Amino acid sequence: MKSLAVLPVALLLAVAASSPAAEVEITSEPSHHLILQNQYVRVFQVEVAPHAATLMHRHGHDYIFVTLGASEVSNEVAGKPPVTLKLQDGEVRATDGGFVHIARNLAATPFRNITIELLQDDKARTSPPPKWDDDRSLQVLHGGTQQVLFVKDGVRVSETELQVAGSVPKHRHTRPHLVIAITDLTFRSDVVGKGASNVEMKSGEIKWVEGDLTHTITNVGNADAKFVTFEF
Q1: Strand ranges inside 27-154, DSSP E
Q2: Cα dist. 117→52, 140, 210 in Å?
């Protein structure tokens, strides 16, 4: 009688193990922490512990993620074989939405990134936004570089690296933009008509800036600075 009683439990466990994991919305996934939402984006701080995994979660929008620290991740999309990603600190990747997956951290260190959902992706596909003058470029600055990485759904993504005392010359932002610090940084922003102020950001911090802004940026910290900018 004892073996007969155990058998149904064993069968239930086998069925549970073979059943697909229930999916959750990204806002209900414990490793994803919503830190900003507006008409353009939802921004999540993501951290997955060493050798841990997210829940199966849905990405309903196109998104871009910025890796914070080198890591190795298994991207397990439902219905597809797992793909191993070896990611470098500061690496920026764009992904089309419309899928569910598990992100499994294969490394002995936390997998950290900033995930930026592009909420106007459908609009960009049906009514393409005006093109940028440059969608791929590299500009050598005074003590640094600024590189346009790509344009996704009308959003231009660029990476800026500034040595100590390096600067980005006066430039105008007609559209709002999002800044993500890859390194800890302190820079002075000299805004035309408003004067200068210092901005301090830790690695992984974000800053949303409205448009209609003309300024110069100078690295006034004591180390090289690196950040990524999303222009909408």
Answers
A1: 32-37, 41-48, 57-59, 63-68, 71-77, 83-87, 92-95, 99-105, 111-118, 137-152
A2: 23, 30, 18
Residue-by-residue DSSP string for 89-116: TT-EEEE--SEEEEEEE-SSS-EEEEEE
**Local mean pLDDT, 10-residue blocks, the chain (232 residues):** 45 42 92 98 98 98 98 97 98 97 98 98 91 90 97 97 97 95 97 94 97 95 98 96
Is the same domain home to 157 and 221? Answer: yes
C-alpha distances (whole Å) from 73 to each of 70, 107, 112, 115 are 10, 7, 11, 15
CATH number at residue 145: 2.60.120.10
Clarify whether residues 100 and 142 are in a common domain: no
Q: Is this prediction's pTM over 0.85?
A: yes
Say whether both 207 and 134 belong to one domain: yes
Total domains, the chain: 2
